[in-house]
Amino acid sequence: MELTKNHIEELKKSSNSNFKIFINKISNEDTKLLYLLDNIGKLPRGFDEEWIFELSKHNNSKIRLSAIKNLGKIKSEKVVNFLVTRFEIEDNSSIKREIISSIGRQRNPTNKSVLYKYLYDEDPKVICQAIRALLVFKNDEEIISKLKPLINHQNEMVRTVIYKEFFVDSRRKAAIPHDQTYNYLKNTVVHGDVKNVLNFVDDESIHLTFTSPPYYNARDYSIYPSYQAYLDFLAQVFKEVYRVTKEGRFLIVNTSPIIIPRISRQHSSKRYPIPFDIHSDLVEMGWEFIDDIVWLKPEASVKNRNAGFLQHRKPLGYKPNAITEYLMVYRKSTTRLIDWNIKQYDKQTVIDSKIKDGYETSNVWKIDPTFNKVHSAVFPLELCKKVIQYYSFQGDIVFDPFGGSGTVGRTAKSLKRLFFITEKDDNYFNYMREKVTSTSIFEEIETDFLEIHQFKQKKENDTNTTSN
Ligand SMILES: C[S@@+](CC[C@H](N)C(=O)[O-])C[C@H]1O[C@@H](n2cnc3c(N)ncnc32)[C@H](O)[C@@H]1O
Description:
By secondary structure, the protein is of the alpha/beta class.
């Protein structure tokens, strides 16, 4: 006979001996035992729970887990002592965590000393479970003194929980509302080195940064004395981007490993894994790694490295054509969930910003590259559109520190976002500016093209800084 919820309710109303008979009857039927445990709900008064203790030792780990969950409903010293003993014997880590959770659910201050022990367990999840259980008595001085030092714990998950509970000032407010930015940044392109321009940009003013930095010395628009100097330069820029980014908002960096050709036949060419090398710098400065998206190009669109191998077919000489670039996705660290960010917008903006069907469902995006006569490395519009739609709301300001031909600005505007761009190269800056008067990119947009001193002035004039 199939076991139903109604049947379980009937059983709960009948006598303990009836219940016992039933348990004995299904003792070899794991599915029924599990269904019973998962659906028994609140235990009636005077209920003989001995069978739950027994099932907590069952050799089926699912049954053990569910039985232990049910024990958490019974507030007694006997349960706590039983659970402590089970913890020692148990080797399934999920069940060990459930044991601590069940002790915690008793919400009994006398269990404090029992729980302290688990703060030193080897499994960080057990520690976090014990912390959660103890935080029920958050105002207890003794508990605070036990938990706060865990801010120095070796495990990052433990540190994060403690940081959120004891070290975050949840009353701290940004200078302007989350969904707004400063007028002096809106639809502005600044001609200058991004490092200098950012000196004049306020903290927490940018909603999204999407950029493709210079490719070390692979293209001629930027020359760095060494690869390390290049990485240091990017680290400086992204540290400033971090400062100007709003709480919990995103940075998407488009890079790929590059190749610097050999200087003579006696040397080999050198490959530099840019995305992998800047990653650790970004994480260290506080950017939280979120996703790695791969931009996949048609093989015919990239430089062919295969020709030699095609002829000789000798091992070690294999050179695949590089048809991918990375979009590394990071979020400015925060203890707040994404939901908090979303809640900072009015309902209509959230509705208007919803992403339509046909969005990318995987982290591999097949997009053809774009070729431009003036700039050698422009973002394809399609790529730019996706990033801006997936990682910003209408009305947000999107920043590109390495503006190039201004694709981010054009796309942001077409998607009802604002933009802020910096570009140091005269040609590219002029290219963007010329396009304003001709037929293309910024035509209908009132865009300010400024030198750094003019930008500084604009900011000073913008005393009444916040508006929508
Ligand atoms: C890979 S390109 C970006 C192309 C851009 N995504 C587009 O769609 O046109 C990098 C750009 O960064 C600019 N750049 C390099 N160093 C810079 C700096 N220190 N400050 C501002 N711009 C810089 C270069 O002149 C180049 O145009």
